[in-house]
Design brief:
With about 400 residues, the protein is α/β, with parallel strands linked by helices. It folds into two domains: about 20-260, Type I PLP-dependent aspartate aminotransferase-like (Major domain) (Aspartate Aminotransferase, domain 2); about 260-390, Aspartate Aminotransferase, domain 1, CATH 3.90.1150.10. It has 13 helices and 15 strands. It has helices at about 20-30, 40-55, 65-75, 90-100, 120-125, 145-155, 205-215, 250-260, 260-280, 315-325, 340-345, 350-360, 370-390, and strands spanning about 55-60, 80-85, 105, 130-135, 155-160, 170, 175, 180-185, 200, 220, 235, 285, 295, 300-305, 360-365. The strands form four sheets. It has a seven-stranded mixed sheet with strand order 1-9-8-5-4-2-3, with helices on both faces. Strands 7-6-13 form a three-stranded antiparallel sheet, with no helix packed on it. Helix 6 (about 145-155) links the parallel strand 4 (about 130-135) and strand 5 (about 155-160). The longest helix is centred in the last third of the chain and has 19 residues, at about 260-280. The protein is globular. Bound molecules: pyridoxal-5'-phosphate. Pyridoxal-5'-phosphate binds near residues 89, 92, 163, 185 and 198.
């Protein structure tokens, strides 16, 4: 079938939230109550996520970026400490290191999963390396056995950026239980949302206490750790913390959404399966590779138009999707390309796989509320654009 006009009339975004009446009612209940911040909804949400991930502790933050900042604080990252992470991620994964005065070091990605390459991590470890921040890109867990082994050998902290991978598992274990600390984000494009929001989950009581302190100005009322006690009003600030608290309004929404997480992830897997089936076997079109050890929660569905096989470059292909009202995106620009990083952070970065990846990647729309027509429109657009530009060489 040929289409003269755009494949669809209205723009299909690459991701968005799915809220129902139950979610709205949960928020309204908090609004009608006494406490809209620092009330009981936070703890309920934290307990639910900790239980889901199978760990003891969870600390909610006002967003995922603040949560990563907290994890870097708890890990004790300070001036000139090096932290190894991937360049194919959102800037927050490495900005959190800069907040603490540390230095992000970028390890190249694997050409198949686009996740950080453990061999590159190993090559970049120095006596100043303090932590590793692996990112489960697109929702597919990193090879955490290898990352954890490197961390054990070199005495490093692992902060797992699982903004994409809530609901995913690795070697049969839920993401959240695979590192010293794991961060989830509840931004509306992520698996479940609280408007803005983030959380660190951990099994380590020491980190847990540091995270609580950091989230609340570095203030404590714990008599056991205070230097003195002037009376019932008294508190002490022992560390430089921030106001990074989540509101109960947000926590109520997040808690309600957690009840739908498994359903959302199933629906994402179903849509990814439909894309895989419809788009496989086309020369030059690279579909997502799934590692046998991991069960992705499919935050993103990535395709690549191989260089040299098409008469258009990625920019032209990207624009063709947008002209068809398919809200494609690019995830991500290698972080070290950012002017701030060029000017202030990097010496020489050598990540040829990240460069090749960035030249060719396109993110297709994928979110649980897409209906069968939306899914069919995306497939139609990919096939239309493929046919239009494939050079057959
Ligand atoms: C979304 C995201 C974050 C930051 O989360 P926010 O809640 O938006 O602050 C960090 N890392 C990655 C990989 C993300 O996708």
């Amino acid at each position: 079938m040929e289409y003269a006009g755009p494949v669809r009339e209205a723009l299909l975004p690459y991701g968005k939230q799915w809220l129902d009446e139950e979610d709205i009612e949960a928020v309204v209940q908090v609004l009608r109550g006494e406490l809209i911040t620092q009330g009981p909804a936070i703890e309920r949400f934290e307990r639910r996520v900790a239980e889901y991930a199978g760990v003891r502790y969870a600390v909610a933050f006002c967003n995922g970026t603040a949560a990563l900042h907290g994890a870097c604080f708890a890990a004790g990252i300070g001036d000139d400490d090096e932290v190894i992470t991937t360049p194919i991620t959102f800037i927050a994964s490495s900005n959190c290191v800069l907040y603490m005065g540390g230095k992000p070091v970028f390890a190249d990605i694997l050409p198949d999963t686009y996740n950080i390459n453990p061999a590159e991590v190993e090559r970049l470890i120095t006596s100043r390396t303090k932590a590793i921040i692996p990112v489960d890109f697109t929702g597919q867990p990193v090879d955490m056995d290898r990352i954890n082994e490197l961390a054990r050998k070199n005495n490093l902290v692992v902060i797992h950026d699982a903004a994409h991978s809530l609901g995913a598992s690795y070697a049969g274990k839920k993401v959240g239980s695979l590192a010293h600390m794991t961060m989830f984000s509840f931004h509306p494009v992520k698996h479940v949302t609280s408007g803005e929001g983030g959380m660190i989950v951990t099994d380590d009581e020491h980190y847990y206490k540091r995270l609580l302190l950091f989230r609340n100005h570095g203030m404590t009322r714990d008599a056991a750790v205070m230097q003195k006690n002037d009376g019932p009003w008294y508190y002490e600030m022992s560390e430089l913390g921030y106001n990074y608290r989540m509101t109960d309004i947000q926590a109520a929404l997040g808690h309600s959404q957690m009840g739908k997480l498994d359903h959302f992830v199933d629906r994402r897997r179903e849509i990814a399966g439909a894309y895989n089936e419809a788009l496989s076997g086309l020369d030059g079109l690279v579909l997502p590779f799934q590692h046998e050890k991991s069960d992705s929660s499919w935050h993103l569905y990535m395709i690549r138009f191989e260089q040299g096989k098409f008469t258009a470059d990625r920019r032209e292909i990207f624009e063709a999707f947008r002209e068809n009202n398919i809200g494609v995106n690019v995830h991500y620009i290698p972080v070290y390309h950012q002017p701030f990083y060029k000017n202030k952070v990097n010496e020489v970065v050598h990540c040829p796989e990240a460069e090749t990846y960035y030249q060719t990647c396109i993110t297709l729309p994928l979110f649980p509320r897409m209906n069968e027509h939306d899914v069919a429109d995306v497939i139609t657009a990919v096939l239309k654009i493929y046919k239009q530009y494939y050079s057959g060489i």
